[in-house]
Structure formats: C-alpha cells, structure tokens
Automatic annotation (TrEMBL):
Record organism: Paramagnetospirillum magnetotacticum MS-1
The keyword Glycoprotein belongs to this UniProt entry's keyword annotation: no
Transmembrane segments: none
Keyword annotations from UniProtKB, A to Z: Transferase
Name the UniProt record assigns to this protein: Glycosyltransferase
Any Pfam family hit: Glycos_transf_1
Keyword Glycoprotein recorded: no
C-alpha cells in the first residue's frame, strides 16, 4: 500500500516523506507549509497538497486556542484530499481526528504519529512542574487531551519514537500491539565531529532546546551553580515565559534561539551535551549532539536508554536530581579523555542505525506489518 502523510507543519514528517518517496511508497504529502517552502526541503516532483493559511495562523495566532482550531481545520482538509485509491494515512496527533472515519470507511489504515509521551502523561508532568515553581501555566487544553485520546482509540497503529514514550501509553491501557517504536534519524553529513575542539579551562556544557520547565532547565541551572565555575553552561533556544527569574539567578549564558544552520557550530564549540528533560518524545538535538561527537548527559525521559549505554556513549541520570546531574557533569568535566572516548562512541552509535534512511526502513517495515493484519 502507498502512504499519504498529513502533517500540520513540518516536524519529522518531511523526513518521512522524503524517505518514502525515494522508496516509491509515498502517494502524497498534505501539509500546512506553502508549496514554495516544501520545495526547500523535498524533491520538486513530490506530490503535495497544501493549506498554507493555517501555517500563517500558527505563526500569527489570531484565534483563541489556535492549536485546537488548526488541528480541526487541517483534519477536515485532509479528509477532503485523500487519494482515491485506499492506502495508509499517516497523520499527526491532534490534527487527524476528523479525517479518520472517512479514511477508514474508504479502506485506509490509519497511523497516528505521536512525537511525545501520552498526552495525559505530558499534561500531568507540565502541570506539576508549573505548580512546583509557582509559575503560571496555560497547561494542555482539556479539549486537546480529549481529541488525542479519541485518535488513539481510532488508530490502527500509533508510532512513538522511544520506549519511554511507549511505556506511557501502556500505563494508560493502550494495547501493546497498537504501538510501534521508531526512533528518528539525524543528518549524519550535516552533523559531524569537529576537526578540532576548542581549548578551555572550563569545559562548555551545551543545552539546545526550548528553555523551560519541560526540558528540566531548572535542574541544569542548579547543577551549574554547584559546579561553581568549573564549567560554562550555555543554553541555546527560545526562552519560555516566566523563566526570567530562574535564569537570572542561574549563572548560565542564555544564547537565545538559533537557526538550524547555526547548530553544527554550537556542537563544535561544546564539550558536553546535557538534556535533563522531564517529558519528551525523542529530541532531535540529542541525536545531533551524538552525531557531532559529544558525550551526552540525559534523563530517561528523553528516551536516552534507546540510544545510550550508560558509561559508554554518555550518562543517564534521574530527572529532578541536581546532585546526580552535578556529579555526572563534574566527572566528565574533569576527564577530557573520557569525554573524547564517549563522544567517539556516540558517533558510532548513531552511524549504526540512526540515520534518516534507517528511520525510513523501520517505517516501511511497520507499515507492511500493519497491512498484513486481518
């Protein structure tokens, strides 16, 4: 069966589209990206249907609850643009519901891509963390929770990127046979070890991602304070509202958001990559750092156990544990040879199964198993 991908944005949907197209398995891509922007990332002859005004709305939100509005509008657009010949519809969680019954009625199998943990687990983690720090949080819209859980029920298959994410679904009663784990890939040519690492008395600990509670930034800031200048902590990414007070007392260098083209340079200037998240899917930055030859210090919630053998490619530490994080970072900071060995092992690990081609192969295998089911 050929595959139609419906993604409200880009996410890793464009990487999946490229891999399926190269294998002759893609029927069409449906997206909110305008056609000219799609062509920046994908072959010119790849068939695309777009509803670009929704992408404009995402970037300039002019309606209440834009995520809910965009999700519903995009799913209706998908339902109206399904191919005539039934196949597999791969849609993103929160933006597929209205297309699912029409697709199934016409003989499609429906796969939901969920790039994070179960939405109810995610909502509970975020609410607890906001309460812990006394920060105002809009939380997850209950209507989005209800919407995604309805998608989980209707889906023939739910694709998640890590075993940790899968386990949050199992804990909420989703059947194991309905779940597939397919870790994302990384551009192994675009992210490569630096020819020469910078020389510095204070090793640089790099964080790349949204600078906020979900990514465990307060724990990293506390670890940075305990290291007392032995390391430099550099935060790259957009800063969430309400984080200013925490950042002001943390002593980290806040670099702000950077374009994707600047990230290889950030990894090249770093000595250690740290991601102490509380809830994730599989951060692409984790794969990028490993491909760039950096040792990684991360929490189980990042899905690190699927990528890292503790003590080989990096270190896995508990979330919400500044003492454990400090000890891990201090040990690596004091041992350049261990950092080098771990960084080389990290590069070998992603080369051995985490390129985008590997991701595409796993996706095709999962779809083929799906269509063989009664």
């Amino acid at each position: 069966m050929r595959v139609t991908i419906a993604v409200h944005g880009r996410f890793h949907g464009f990487d999946l589209a490229r891999e399926l197209w190269g294998r002759g398995r893609l029927e069409r891509l449906i997206t909110t990206y305008p056609a000219f922007a799609v062509r920046r990332f994908l072959p010119a002859d790849l068939p695309v249907r777009t509803i670009a005004w929704l992408e404009a709305l995402r970037r300039l939100p002019l309606v209440p609850s834009p995520d809910l509005f965009i999700g519903k509008a995009f799913a209706r657009f998908v339902a109206a643009n399904l191919p005539e010949e039934p196949g597999i519809l791969v849609g993103w969680s929160g933006a597929t519901l209205e297309a699912m019954d029409p697709a199934r009625a016409r003989g499609f199998r429906v796969v939901i891509e969920r790039g994070s943990s179960h939405i109810r687990h995610q909502a509970e983690v975020l609410a607890a963390e906001a309460k812990r720090f006394g920060l105002a949080s809009a939380g997850v819209d209950p209507r989005m929770i209800e919407r995604e859980e309805a998608e989980y029920v209707l889906a023939d298959l739910i694709s998640v990127p890590t075993g940790f994410a899968r386990d949050t679904f199992l804990a909420r009663g989703v059947a194991a046979e309905k779940l597939v784990v397919n870790p994302y890939g990384v551009d192994l040519a675009g992210f490569a070890p630096a020819a020469h690492r910078r020389e510095s008395e204070a090793p640089r600990i790099l964080f790349v991602g949204r600078v906020g509670l979900r990514k465990g930034v307060p724990t990293l800031l506390e670890a940075g304070r305990r290291l007392k200048g032995a390391c430099e902590v550099r935060l790259v990414g957009p800063v969430e509202a309400g984080m200013d007070t925490l950042l002001g007392a943390g002593g980290a260098h806040v670099a702000g958001p950077k374009p994707g083209a600047a990230l290889p340079g950030e990894y090249a200037e770093a000595d250690i990559f740290c991601l102490p998240s509380l809830e994730e899917g599989l951060p692409l930055t984790l794969l990028q750092a490993m491909a760039s030859g950096l040792p990684v210090v991360a929490t189980p919630e990042t899905g690190a156990a699927d990528l890292i053998t503790h003590g080989v490619e990096g270190l896995i530490v508990p979330s919400h544990d500044p003492e454990a994080l400090t000890a891990a970072l201090r040990g690596l900071a004091a041992d350049p040879e261990r950092r080098r060995a771990m960084g080389e092992a990290a590069r070998r690990r992603v080369e051995a199964g985490f390129g985008w081609s590997d991701y595409g192969e796993r996706a095709v295998a999962a779809y083929d198993r799906l269509v063989q089911r009664p």
